[in-house]
Specification:
Elements (H helix, E strand, L loop, with lengths): L1 E6 L4 E4 L2 H8 L7 E4 L7 E6 L2 E7 L2 E6 L4 H13 L16 H16 L7 E9 L5 E2 L1 H8 L6 E9 L3 H14 L6 H13 L26 H13 L13 E5 H17 L6 E2 L18 E5 L2 E9 L9 H14 L3 E8 L27 E4 L6 E8 L4 H39 L1
Parallel strand pairs: 1-6, 13-14, 14-16
Antiparallel strand pairs: 2-4, 3-4, 5-6, 5-10, 7-9, 8-9, 11-12, 12-13, 15-16
Length: 437
Amino acid sequence: MRQIDLKEYETSAYLLSHAEASSLRNRPKELDLTVTRPLDSNDEYHLAPGSTVGALELDGLSILIQPKISIPQLLSMACYAIDKVKFKKEQFKYPDEPALPDVLARSLAACARKTFARGLLHDYRTEEEALHTVRGRIRFDEQIRRRFGSPLPIEVTYDDFTDDIPLNQLVKAAAFRLRRMRLRSAEARTGLAWVAAMLDNVSLKEFRPREVPKIRFDRLNERYRDVVALSSLVLQHSAFESNRGDVRTPGFLMDMNEVFQEFVTVAMREALGASDRMFGERSIDSLDEDGDIRLKPDLTWRDGKNCLFVGDAKYKKIEGHPQNADLYQLLAYVTALDLPGGMLIYAQHEGDSTIGESTGSPNGMPSYAQHEEKPAVHKVRRSGKRLEVAALNISGTLDDVLDRVKRLAERAKDLRDEARTLRNKAWQQQPAKSAAA
């Protein structure tokens, strides 16, 4: 199988056959990849990945797309977004493994070994079966309906103490999903085989990406939290259908737009001490009076029925200043909600130019100085609404990034408090206007 090594948002040149180029052009929709051929070339193609990273096998091609940030940092942020699980970067640090699925496979195996060191977790599960001996309780209604007076077999229901429970099923499904990929690492394959052997008596179930169950943890199953977070990450990003019929394409792809948005949402919610219902992504009032133009920002903070803060998280490659379309989008949000301002949060990688305080430039275009997490403020003419733009540096450790999120959360609090004050003043003035009328 031919190997194609790419990097997020970087263009690479490869000599491809017509069949290979056709396969890449007809790639699954989950793979964000631009394929172009220069006019002066017959066989050389330029491959430019977008925000999708990971690995994919496609018609004899093994495609690897490296993220701009380190794989340990990417997996740490993704797991935190799933269930606020705080992994250390060392838990994903395998310098000899450049492929994301291999790192994830070795990490899952290592985490499973630690979790299963005290044995597999068992729990009671209610079973309904037809047996030749009585076990548990007889289901008389079913016995009459199905057996028509025949004494055997007997319809019974009983509680079975088993290891075939959702926690173990998630881990087994993730291990088998990774085993179906073309892993480069012998250690990864060996580790996954050990996990499969440990869970031999557990049912192998398929979990669709958007149907991975949410596990409630308590003192009895808390030790499973880390391995379940990794398993959920695998299951949410490794199963997808090709856009060419019903062929399932093996691979593991992560959309950095989704990862960044989910991470910022969870980290901001945690920093603000808000609940899922109060803070998160949800549809808001429509932009137009007829309700035809629906709006769904990434970040909303509600106080009952009222939305007092709105924002968007953008994982984009920008050159020192935000894109106009993103500012127009934020303006639509604050206008529809009648808020004094909103916030755009961009991802900043190490070495990128920082969005910060607008300092101006000789040519009249805005330039942005190095002020980490200090938003640049754009005041909209004739409306007075403020569009604040901040950069979130996602390099360093997970704790470093979470500390930076806390500083952004403080600014979100200020915007929320300002909106609440203005709304309260408007309410207080309404009775006075009614009395005067």
